[in-house]
Amino acid sequence: MTVMRALSVSEITLNAGAHVSRIRRWIALLALALLAAGARADAPVTPGLTFNGFGTLGLVHSSEDQADFVASTLKPSGAGHTRSWSGHVDSVIGAQLTATLTPRLSAVVQVVAEQNYDNSYRPLVEWANVRYQVTPGFDVRIGRIVLPAFMVSDYRKVGYINPWVRPPLELYSLIPVESSDGVDARYRVTVGEITHTFLGIYGRTETRIPGDSKVQAKGAGMITYTAELGATTLRAAYSRADLTVEAFNPLFDAFRQFGPEGIAIADRYDLDDKRITFIALGGMYDPGKWFVRGEWGQSDTNSVLGKATAWYVSGGYRLGDFTPYVTYARRKVASNTADPGLTVAALPPFLAGPAAGLNAALNATLGSAPAQQTLSLGGRWDFASNAALKLQFDHTRHDAGSAGLLSNQQPGFRTGGKVNVFSATIDFVF
Predict the structure, then answer these.
(1) Alpha-carbon span 406 to 410, nearest angstrom
(2) Spelled out in words, what is the top-level CATH class assigned to the domain 2-429?
(3) Can you list the residues of the chain whose pLDDT is less than 70?
(4) Cα angle vertex 261, ends 259, 262, to 5°?
(5) For residues 274 and 65, what is the distance between their CA atoms, to the nearest angstrom?
(6) Within 10 Å of residue 337's Cβ, how many Cβ atoms?
(7) Nearest Cα to 282, choosing from 219, 353, 210, 233?
């Protein structure tokens, strides 16, 4: 159950420390590319550096004292049991340096500090890439780049840009990772009044999750399509990857000791280079005075983590510097939450006990799949040109037998309940 709370679909975050050597190799190679491309520049340009930053100071209270409310299922603790009021849930600080080297060539590095899987605030390299503008409508990037799974992926951590305190967790917890090590290509063209954007990305991620377990996603490919017409934006995304989660190895290695039946169960549910898929659809209408937006997503891990669907719809109205908003989000399990497991009756007594224990562990993990619905009411006050105060109240109902997205559950925790969460943040950019 600990692993299930930490992961949902390809719930993988990036660990910059694990990739330092790889980033250094990129820097060396990209430096050569910059020099070469600079010499071939189409027109003279004065190299320039642009520095930007963003941050969120947050405070969160949860009514559930037997589990923690967290903004990402990969965070180890939050508001509720660990502490009634927590500043760790949403607080983040980030800085971005952009270098323009030629009319076609630029590079960006973004570093972010927030609560990590080990409770540290060690800064991580979120982005580190070079972009080459092949034509006015076509560009290519290589390095650590954004993983565009959702509509707000490009600025998911930049709270000032988003209307809410945080993107709806029901959907965004399906893929909380925001970056990928690899390459992407983007093509943008306007036909009539509609602007079409096609993007393809290929790469990999690797990190350690709470419990110090290694997670890898290799061969991660994603394609997206976005159409823009005036105040209307429509978007679709599809991705697939091969996922490995070491934390499950002991459980399924034990199943394999029970012969063909155990091997079949392990092959069905393990996460050892297992193919996962994700699809998402989204839309937004924002004429300026008000907005409405929504997204839907479905993930399938073909493993013990199962298959899930999630969606949300949100709207708000701008009254000068104040914007009240409302959001409803839903997440459901779309796969089996129980399995007969090993046939205990067919085993000798000395094996029946261990087999029953394995069956119980398997079903505990299957049954802990998050399923919940949340109604959120909030307001945003832009009290400065670069800062906003947000207040948000979330009322969440967990499906029967589910703990929802709460983590760090204690012995006294009851599934299928309700939880109220109050959040206050100050978001800023500089």
Answers:
(1) 11
(2) mainly beta
(3) 1-45
(4) 65
(5) 36
(6) 16
(7) 233
Task: Give per-residue burial for 307-330: e unless 16+ CB within 10 Å, then b.
Answer: bbbbbbbbbbebeeeebebebbbb
| Residue 46, pLDDT score | 74
Q: CB 43: neighbour CB atoms within 10 A?
A: 7
pLDDT at position 10, please?
37
Q: Scanning the structure block, which residue is given the tokens 């993930």?
A: 299
Q: Is 382 left (phi over 0), alpha (psi -120 to 50) or beta?
A: beta
Q: Rounded to two decimals, what is the model's pTM?
A: 0.87
Beta-bridge partners for 1: none
Residues for the chain: how many in total?
430
Q: What are the backbone dihedrals phi and psi of residue 73, each rounded to the nearest 5 degrees, phi first?
A: -70, -5
Q: What pLDDT score was predicted for residue 17?
A: 42
Cα gap 222→162, rounded to integer Å: 23
Distance CA 9, CA 278 (A): 8
State the amino acid at position 239 in one-letter form. Answer: S
Residue 118 and residue 20: Cα distance in Å, rounded? 18
Q: Please identify which residue in the block is written with the tokens 């190299």.
A: 47
What does the pLDDT read at residue 44? 59
pLDDT for the residue numbered 7: 46
pLDDT of residue 215: 83
